[in-house]
Amino acid sequence: EVQLVESGGGLVQPGGSLRLSCLASGFTFDDYAMSWVRQAPGKERELIANVTRDGDHNYADFVKGRFTISRGSAGFTAYLQMVSLKPEDTAIYYCRTNTKWGVFWGQGTQVTVSS
Q1: Could you tell me the pLDDT band of residue 73, with boundaries at 50, 70 and 90?
Q2: 21-24: long-range pairs with CB below 8 Å, 24+
Q3: Is 60 buried (19+), middle (13-18) or exposed (0-12) by CB count in 10 A?
């Protein structure tokens, strides 16, 4: 069974940093790209970043230079390092993978940026 479990969210002040983790199981992690997606209150989900199986990554314009997506060297975990956080980054953050069995999502982790 494919499972994705996010962690690392929380309350942070503007300008602060957080690192989100996504622990993956039930599939061959190294064979698939991983993505982070967020959903702010009252808004649709939006793709933040993607990292391919080979480690290539791309980002939405609104996070370029502030967020970094990566894959753990030991496998099984994807990360999203976030710096210079803004109140508009407040959202539930989800990791996602698209496997041969379909698209899978984690349960999400709340990130709140507020003073």
Answers
A1: confident
A2: 21/77, 21/78, 21/79, 22/77, 22/78, 22/79, 22/80, 22/95, 22/106, 23/76, 23/77, 24/76, 24/77, 24/78, 24/95, 24/97
A3: middle
**β-strand pairing of 109-113 with 67-71:** unpaired
Distance, in Å, from the CA atom of 22 to the CA atom of 25, rounded to the nearest integer, reads: 10
Confidence of residue 72 (pLDDT cuts 50, 70, 90): confident
At residue 64, does pLDDT exceed 80? yes
What are the tens digits of pLDDT across the range 14-39? Answer: 999 999 999 999 999 999 999 999 99
- pLDDT band for position 75 (cuts 50, 70, 90): confident
Q: Give the span between the Cα atoms of 18 and 114, in whole angstroms.
A: 13
